[in-house]
Records
---
Amino acid sequence: MSGYYEFTVEVGAAARDAVLNHLLDNGATGFVERDSGLTAYFKETVDPVEVGRSLDEFRNVLRREGLDPHFLFSHSHIGDRDWNETWKEGIKAMDVGRGLTIVPPWLQAPSGRISLIIDSGRAFGTGHHETTRLCLKLIEDIAAAGALSLLDVGTGSGILAVGAALLGIKTVTAVDNDPDAVEAVRINLDINKVDNVEILEGTISNVEGTYDAVVANLISDTLVAIAGELAARLNPGGTALLSGMIEGQEKGVLKAAEDAGLSLLEVIHEGKWVTLIVSKDSKQ
Amino acid sequence: MAQKEEMGQVKLQIAAGKANPAPPIGPALGPYGINIMDFCKGFNAQTQALGDTIIPAVITIYKDRSFTFILKTPPASELIKKAAGIIKGSGTPNKIKVGKLTLAQVEEIAKTKMPDLNATKIEQAMDIIKGTARSMGVDIVS
């Protein structure tokens, strides 16, 4: 696990954006803004001495351009860790749909329901997001309707893929281009004792074969971009769940899905989030 | 309905559409005990179409560990880059110039950023924008 350098810069409002841009051009990955200045973060691969030297030199630029050159800065190293751990301490087991209960690994699984044990690590998909819960409920319906295979695109923690396997879908493929996600899926398959989920590191383009169901809980731009490939991975008569878009974005996603030959079955709103259920004609 | 009690507020400036639990988001939000992944998903969904830019987000965290966030205007340097049609400032702004801004563009950016610049007059805000632009190797032309 890698670490970061944290640069705390005490800088007034007038010169702040110039300093921010200078830090950004030198590799800063993001900032926390405080009343008295900025805290910038750099990946460990950046030389902090070089960043400091460049900030010192930047004072001359500010002075020349009529901006206040008097700012103070310091830096420290911080190790990477699971920043979500405080949140994790407060979470409880949660029932989803008719039969599933999402359980964090550090809690006792309840009896009488199917336990979906999820340790999300640093990947998306804790099970506490509206779209994840809704997708799980819909996968439960799809499994009950007899789907035998499912592809989960952008699997994150693998919550939907593992859930699908626990709900009885025989063949499941989970794909994600984030190595942290792939690692999280492996852990979750292991703790749920599931062995019928294939994990692929990559995009939908790396997936072969076709499936009775495809689920993609992503963002709308990605859903639009992959609509064609998504339709191609679906068996005739199959169902796809397109989720992760916010209200107002569903029109673009639906158009892309329809252009790819899919038909709308249902639009579901959950808070500000929208999920589209689409299907591929059985004659295609 | 009773109003929820606020626990704190965090101001982040992060790349549109690319939020993840790494710093700055993790260390800034983690101690409040909110679900960082939910913030990242919401932020990415709202900012994915804004392109390669830095967007400030102000996150209000409540005592029940729920949160809301609003997006603010990008920093002046990002508005300057957009107006000048460049992706990066100059590493040696006194020698290598990478773009130009007209006074009208400076004034427009100054008006947008007035509330964040501690400036009371538009001329004062314009001077800050001009200085910021020149510090990036962007010349001001009339």
---
Amino acid sequence: MRSLAIGVIVTGLAAPTLSAQPLEERLPTCLACHGESGTSQELETPSLGAQHPFYATVQLFMFRDKLRVSERMNETTEGLSDTELQRAADVISKLPPPQPVSDNPDATRMERGRALGEKYRCNFCHQRNYTGHENVPRIAGQREDYLLKSLRTYKDNSRYGYDAQMSEVVYPIKDEEFVELAYFLARLK
Amino acid sequence: MTQLPRRCAVMLAGTLGAVLVSTPPAAAQQQAPLPPGSPLIGQPDTDAAKRLAPIAPPPVPTAVDKLPLDKLKAPKGFTIEVYASGIDNARTLRLGDKGTVFVSGRLKDKVYAIVDKGGTREVKVIASGLHRPNGMVLHKGTLYIAEVSQISKIENVEDKLDNPPKPTVIFSDLPKDEAHGWKYLTVGPDEKLYFQVGAPCNICMPSERHAKIYRLNLDGSGLEVVATGIRQIVGMDWHPVSKQLYFTENQRDWLSEEIPEDKLNRVTQPGKDNFGFPYCHQGNIPDQEFGWGRSCDEFTKPVALLGPHSAPLGMRFYTGTMFPAAYRNQIIIARRGSWNRTTKTGGDLVLVTLKPDGTFKSMQPFVTGFIQNNNYVGRPVDVQVMKDGSLLVSDDYNGAVYRVSYGPQRAARR
């Protein structure tokens, strides 16, 4: 705890290069963008609450080793050890699950999204309540813009998955269907 | 360093206290029962359905003392040992003329060399920053590497292991699809590079460029189609006598638990063979969507059916002399094992024997035990016959290479 607090003060004052910092000093930076309560308020930045440690670990490895490209995440994970990445995933997994969008969902759109999830079998790998399992991420309550971005970048092959399963899955799915799936998942309670 | 967005930075200063106290409600992992009328009621939530997702290997190799060696079983007289460990996502295996074993993978960016120095083995990274470098072959001292959308080479690679140059690209006019984008690469008796472009989907009508086997001259010129109608291939080898190309082919998912079966195929009419995708699966099942108005009789039949969803990948004709005579010139196939099936199948090496005319005679288990209690303890991907006749086996789940030998001789354990 002490080192965490010190790390934050240092970050706040001088913003030194992240790659020189151990995990505990970087975590507040991670949570500031991704949401310290598990729900992100930041544009196209995913909520990480209750994310499965296996999935989160794999993504962190991919960011550090530049197998998944995101300038900010590549920098944030640079220089972290394998154990630090695994610890970061554990911290993420213990945050509360993300809060779904709390507007009054359009029942027709929700039903359309639910049916698409069944049609394309999203509900098998991601589980019927979309909380995921091991290497398959929790997507219930995820940010709508991030879901849409993920689906679109899997489709245009600019997001590299760990295996390429998602690129295979989204192959037959149309963009307007992505929009409905993202609407449904972001509001799923 | 990229500046954090202002908003993140502001939050960082303001919410630190909350970060420190709000961490561990472990109950977050528990799932609340669905409320009455929930649109999710009625969807599969059984343990069986939970197992129907692809299984990803851990992102770090398994420590050598944790490898599942004691679980693996081979016929009497065979010995299995660890040849090398700590090789991330070890998949394709190739042997150099000077005894170097090359290993490449699908999930990470590196190609490794295992150098045997009289009992001790050293693992070196010889190329990195590659995009799914699953395809790899050696020919006359040159290492060829096939990534998703390009093929490159390192000449005289075994002389440059300590200071390898960046691979030189020889061909890059390939689709960039991630799905089934990883390649298998081999050199034919005609001294051409053979590789496939898989279907970019589970089941779809592929474009003109997809679902084919191609060949290229060693300098990257002269692209030609060798065969069409393939879904995805991760193993090819040449019959040592007939010189015909045999290959394993992975068939579509989600048709059923029991069908279609994955295939062993043979190219008998280069440039003409069509293996049926997406119209016909396992040689006799018309696709439920694309099969209408077509007949499986239009397509080249498989040599053998290798089990539903069993994922047969690497294969080699056994050309050594160490194993019993019954193995000679027969095929050893690594079945990586199923994910799209409630009860896992595959997860083994099988021996497929052929009749003198090159057609199927028998299939029997060779090395088994990668599936324990319906879970993977390892997943075999490729095999490589060594000069002494022993067989190497890669395991991409554990990042390891095993050696299978026959007879009383004691092999050096690592």
